[in-house]
Amino acid sequence: MEWEVVIGLETHTQLQTKTKIFSGASTAFGSEPNTQACVVSLALPGVLPVLNQEAVKCAIKFGLAVNAEIAPRSVFARKNYFYPDLPKGYQISQYELPVVGQGSMTIQVGSGDKAYEKVINITRAHLEEDAGKSVHGAQEGMSGIDLNRAGTPLLEIVTEPDMRSAAEAVAYAKKLHDLVQWIGICDGNMQEGSFRCDVNVSVRPKGSDKLGTRREIKNLNSFKFMQQAIEYETSWQIETLEDGGTIQQATVLFNPDTGETRAMRSKEEANDYRYFPDPDLLPLAISESDISKVKAEMPELPEAMKARFEAQYGLAHYDANALTSSRGTADYFVATVDAGSDAKLAANWVMGSVSAKLNAEDKEISESPISQSALASLIKRIQDGTISNNAAKQVFEAMWAGEGDADSIIESKGLKQVSDSGAIEAIVDEVLAANAAMVEEFKAGKEKAFNALVGQAMKASKGKANPAQVNEILKKKLGAGV
Amino acid sequence: MINKSLKQLGAMLQSKEISSVELTQEFLNRIDRLNPEINAFITLDKDKTLAQAKHADSLLAAGKGTALTGLPIGQKDIFVAKGWRTTCGSKMLETFIGPYDADIIERFDAAGAVNLGKTNMDEFAMGSSNETSYFGKVQNPWDRSRVPGGSSGGSAAAVAARLCAAATGTDTGGSIRQPASLCGLSGLKPTYGLASRFGMIAFASSLDQSGPMAKSCEDMALMMNVITGFDKRDSTSLNREKEDYTRDLSKPLAGLKVGLPKEYFAEGLGADVAKAVNEAIAEYKKLGAQIVDISLPNTKLSIPVYYVLAPAEASSNLSRFDGVRYGHRAKEYGDLMDMYCKSRAEGFGAEVKRRILIGAYVLSAGYYDAYYIKAQQIRRLIAQDFENAFKQCDIIMGPTAPSTAFKAGEKADDPVAMYLQDIYTIAVNLAGLPGMSIPAGFAPSEDGKRLPVGLQIIGNYFDEARMLNVGHAYQQVTDWHTQMPEGIE
Questions:
Q1: How crowded is the C-beta side of B227, counted as CA atoms within 13 Å?
Q2: Domain B6-251 adopts which CATH fold?
Q3: Structure letter (DSSP) for residue B100
Q4: Which of A129, A187, A390, B446 has its CA 20 to 30 A from that of A269?
Q5: Is this complex's ipTM strictly greater than 0.90?
Q6: Which fold has domain A421-481?
Q7: Ranges for all domains in chain A classified under CATH 1.10.10.410
Q8: Distance (Å, rounded) from C-alpha B428 to C-alpha B425?
Q9: What is the pLDDT of residue A266?
Q10: A39 — phi, psi (to 5°)?
Q11: Closest CA of chain B from A126, distance in Å
Q12: Which pTM does this prediction carry?
């Protein structure tokens, strides 16, 4: 039987606010345990939550970015359960009425000929507070509690079960990861837990419109693990069903060392969270004017920018898409063009050499040692014929290594293109004289021989001859000989 | 001097007839003498108290005193006060020292008032007799074998026994008004949101409200000026302009429309209480009030609704007492779950456990709609009853409690009989309205003691100034509020 996997994601994004969602304590990462735990974080008797409006702004931004309904009235609810790192004995979240309703995102899956686009529907996004951390093993026989993270604002983003492969799920997660950073609501730091995904996976016979029983893979904090976990989980579920077994709804954890998923708790053991509206907080009211204010502060969104790049710069859809994959890349590209570079050349360089170097060195584009204006000055030397494309690559390498600006490197390395037609003629004459056989082949109709002659001439010039001129002169000479 | 009002004592302080230290010492001496039996105060810190009195004297000397500067006030032990043990009447917090000040504590401090000590209360404010306190029951100064009411029973007994000039209370279903009634005091629960809940240990967040307990409406007006005001640390605090609650005290009552809800004078009301309340109403007629018969048809639903909603909120509010960060932790336990279970089993008393269980039950999957949601719907109907009633009248009057003070132990094993103590007060909390109780005479007990009866005055939202005016007018023509119990001299 052919199987189909059905995937939905729940993503916890930590919002970039200076203070916690219900108190004035700092949200900075990595401080000494409990130094950022104020009376509210500690849930002392008598303390009360006060909503951080910056967190609400982040939620509105996200809603706008995915074309979602932003609820004029949403409600904070208490999710009750006992755990040492949950100081109040309940988490303040949103349950029945979330701040962001249905929206959608278009993702690009795969590359080259197999690339396709797909719309992923967002079910909802809601505001909630994070828990603290339990620290085990610091003291013999004891567990420590660090409440620095308790009360950090989260936006939990839930999708419909719209994804049909690990690749689609990862493409969505990456796109979401890009988007939340693009609109400035999350730093996207997966190591520090700022962006964590829970993935719901089920399988069903292909063609069936009934959903299978799902298992939820919790807390995936890398795209690589997500891919592995979904692939493992999918084949495990298919094997189980093919062996005549059934899938039990469960929460599972992925073990990166073994590459396997393992059930943590089954649904029977699931908590009854006794949700009810938090009487300490008023319903969250968001007016049209609140939304307009946030809208005015929103950066141009990737979809709009992509369309603009195609229209304004004549870029191909694929290129425009790649350039708008992150705000850093897009900003870098725009700044390069603004500094005088040809847009298509700039696009090629940003997606080509710059991106390859960054990948190889595992750097963000903001860390590029070549500034946008420096890159533009390099590209300008290609445009004005000072250097060839090949020479430009050498210059780029040297610039990356910090050896100076484009012009000084061209000068010091002697990479200036020879555009003196007299000098080129002399070289071409030499090449023609030394390669009589090739000339004969060309005259006999072998077009390839022409390219070989161009190559010889370039080689003789040590790559410095202007290839267009070599072409032209060679054509003239050979044509004259016929 | 001990029977003087806040206003009178304040005048004596301002004129340097007496110092705050002397006045405070006088009350501390009385506490030393009477509190071992009455048990109204559970925590004293004379050094802190006298230091505050000294500071108040320096303010007064510098001419920087305000209405309450130098006056010793009893603080219900539900309010967290920095450096003060704050127990909420529970073993759970037996050794908890407040690391910060509640809004109300800050406000009294800023006014230069003196914190005389922390008063006894039903555990986590759950009770109507002060018998659920871990720190022992409180005697009613009018008859030491009887309860003072609850949950602000310690504050009520303290003022009634003249152990302090006034005290604070909190009222979730009647916890200011019922003990005020049973102890012959004036007590006011303000409109929900007028007083900040920051630092007040939560019982039922949507109902809890703090307020004054004093000997007269005039004193309560002075205290209201201190207690109320916007607090950004409480999201349910109302951002309104500050009012002067003394401004209308002396307005004439002519033309005042007083509504009498027929449900408050029906079966269940003690005849002795009915008699005193009716006499008080007759007095109001003499003062020019017009009597209107009204109906609050959903009154009988207020107790079941309350006993769904308040425990639901309480079950969640009390989850933080888990033995992890502060409060009682069992000495011996196995795993984490065992630590939770033992710590909470040992730290909470029976009534608190009962309400946590009820609350967890009504919020459970499968019961939530039938109980919690239904109760919220009825809560709205109850508020509508009042809305309709206030179209016919300016103020509502009736009994505060169905009976006078009952004997200690009499209802301790019958929770439903105990819950019925609040039949006339609970609806006010459910609607978020202000409610007040003032002394309206006495009823003789079977053993010949004089037991106070309270008249309840319910106002429309934010109508506290008028309520105080209505109470003050009555206290100008009666002297119930100035009478003292025997045996406290």
A1: 31
A2: Amidase signature (AS) enzymes (3.90.1300)
A3: S
A4: A129
A5: yes
A6: Arc Repressor Mutant, subunit A (1.10.10)
A7: 421-481
A8: 6
A9: 63
A10: -60, -30
A11: 20
A12: 0.91
